[in-house]
Amino acid sequence: MQFGIFTVGDVTPDPTTGRTPTEHERIKAMTTIAKQAEDVGLDVFATGEHHNPPFVPSSPTTMLGYLAAQTEKIILSTSTTLITTNDPVKIAEDYAMLQHLADGRVDLMMGRGNMAPVYPWFGQDIRQGIPLALEHYRLLRRLWDEDVVDWQGQFRTPLQGFTSTPRPLDGIPPFVWHGSIRSPEIAEIAAFHGDGFFANNIFWPKEHYIALINLYRERYEHYGHGRADQAIVGLGGQVFMRRNAKDAVDEFRPYFDNAPVYGHGPSLEDFTDQTPLTVGTPEQVIEKTLTFADFFGDYQRQLFLVDHAGLPLKTVLEQLDLLGGEVVPVLRKEFAARRPAGVPDNPPTHASMKADREPVDAARQ
Q1: What is the pLDDT of residue 128?
Q2: What is the pLDDT of residue 174?
Q3: CA-CA distances (angstroms) from residue 306 to 20, 33, 215, 302?
Q4: Which residue ranges have biased composition labelled Basic and acidic residues (predicted)?
Q5: DSSP character for 228?
Q6: Which of 76, 113, 198, 263 could form a disulfide with 64 if both were Cys (CB 3.0 to 4.6 A apart)?
Q7: pLDDT, tens only, 54-71
């Protein structure tokens, strides 16, 4: 099973000091966090994509390309690649280039984006969000799968005899996840293509995500990709840890109360009771995370949010030390022991997809 972290890249004042990091400081902190994630033995670092304050990661492939040169093992991914407001031609080219630079250590998560002002900045209409996502993704798949593409659709100019360059590494496109907070249509497109489905698992009670994941699993089996329990599922999560549970709650409370997304809303106690947020000891994080499979079924990727809401870099690095040193080793062992035979323990990687393809290529020769 893969474990990692994802960042939304917010630039938020530290409520305990009142200091706001500069954009430069925040960007450099994110790269430090990614390198530390590899150092402590995590499998994945994923960055969001945002084009509005207070967020800075407007160019995920630039950051991930830099990290490809700074790391050796960790999978470089996105927690959102905006399939609606990005041109699918540019997505095809950018992520194929990143694949080559990272020697295949790349996958990505498609998302619609739910911030309405962003759409007109890129010449699109949020009311067309679902049709845009569906059309753009169909074109993206063709650009990766076919050397020469003739195409005409509703939302961009036609293509005639177009070849996207560079071609995917070894002729194998990056593995794609589809991320959703609330849209069943996104679960459907993930299932249709046999792609992964990632449930944000941050803002809503578990029942909300159970419905989306179950729909994806049912449709994955319907389209003939395998049994429902073999579908490739990823989950988000959110943690803050200290050795003593009370210390964790007391330290995290001002950050929670002033967070840009959910601050000034439900109390910390209510939020931790109703959502996957865990604030406490490493043992409490292990205990709560292990319940995720009880609700959602066996899954392949778990990403944690640890660096938001103005938390200082030093604090985030301490969280990573606890994740890599105490939490993830236990989770790996426990999830492996519980996983039924025949259920994938990891999502596809470039190496695994290449290995699966080699016997087919040999048979054709």
Answers
A1: 78
A2: 98
A3: 18, 10, 29, 13
A4: 353-365
A5: G
A6: 76
A7: 999 999 999 999 999 999
